[in-house]
Write a structure and sequence with these properties.
Layout: H1 3-25, E1 33-35, E2 42-45, E3 49-53, E4 69-73, E5 90-92, H2 98-105, H3 125-138, E6 142-145, H4 149-157, E7 216-222, E8 231-232, E9 243-246, E10 263-265, E11 274-275, E12 279-282
Parallel strand pairs: 4-8, 7-11
Antiparallel strand pairs: 1-2, 2-5, 3-4, 5-12, 6-12, 7-9, 9-10
Length: 286
């Protein structure tokens, strides 16, 4: 065998070995959590996958705009050898709190104030953009933004296919909603009547808290009917009149907290049950 042929074979073996290493290692290369240093906000990685967005026709409380369709959120990882970095999705483990907002904005607009660990509320979509502008100036290498509607529902479901990530129903010990109005006529209870500190109820399967209830969460999307057919990493429509909010709140019934339910507000709207959580993605070397 010629020297050139031997070198070619050795090269092919090395390439195959490197590719196998990338296949096995890259999905686990990104850390499972991220901590934003300015505020201390905690983020957990969203695993890639495909899910059915929306609700099936038989789901109790279903709205016409919840048409089910398959959505793929692709894997985004960094190669081990220091190669090109692709965005990895991390979602805030908790809703943004009053204390975190105050660290960035030097104010607290919340109507349920004097509770630093409670979610900030009474914030408009436009004010959140100002918050994001300031936060993103503090740190290089990461970008913080609102999740898309698809990312939010994917994270809320955490692999589940039921109306709530808790199953077919939502109980008062599972979320902060108006328990006087339970889902499907279940037993009622006395409501808390206000926001509660984030993390007061058990998390979903991916370690995310308060995806149901506490405060509505602004999403990045303009509201519009879902596009037809399977979607890959869908973003927001180019324009619209209202923005999507998700998850229900302490002031709304259990049905409003369903994974698939879509609610909207004008970007300038504020209220004592309107809050948000953030998504983080790396944009440079870590």
């Amino acid at each position: 065998m010629s020297v050139a042929r031997r070198l070619l074979l050795v090269g092919l073996v090395l390439v195959a070995t490197w590719m196998a290493h990338v296949h096995l290692v890259a999905p686990n290369f990104a850390p499972s959590v991220h901590h934003e240093p300015t505020t201390g906000m905690e983020f957990v990685i969203l695993p890639p996958g495909t899910f059915m967005m929306g609700s099936p026709p038989g789901e109790w409380g279903r709205q016409d705009d919840e048409v089910q369709h398959r959505v793929q959120l692709s894997a985004r990882v960094r190669t081990p050898g220091g190669g090109e970095t692709m965005p990895v999705r991390y979602l805030g483990q908790y809703e943004v709190t009053q204390a975190e907002w105050a660290l960035v904005m030097r104010s607290n607009p919340s109507q349920h104030a004097d509770c630093p660990r409670c979610p900030v509320e009474n914030v408009s979509y436009q004010e959140i953009w100002e918050f994001l502008g300031r936060l993103n100036r503090y740190e290089s290498g990461w970008r913080y933004r609102l999740p898309t509607e698809a990312e939010w529902e994917y994270a809320c479901r955490a692999g589940s296919t039921t109306p709530f990530h808790t199953g077919e129903d939502l109980r008062p010990d599972q979320a902060n909603y108006d328990t006087r109005f339970p889902y499907r006529g279940a037993a009622a209870a006395n409501p808390h009547g206000k926001t509660l500190p984030v993390g007061s109820f058990p998390p979903n399967a991916w370690g995310l808290y308060d995806m149901h209830g506490n405060v509505w969460e602004w999403c990045a999307d303009w509201y519009a009917p879902y596009q037809q057919g399977e979607q890959a990493n869908p973003g927001s429509p180019a324009s619209g009149e209202t923005r999507v909010v998700r998850g229900g709140s302490w002031a709304f019934d259990a049905n409003s907290a369903r994974c698939a339910l879509r609610y909207t507000h004008a970007p300038s709207d504020k209220g004592h049950s309107l809050g948000f959580r953030l998504l983080a993605e790396p944009i440079g070397p870590r």
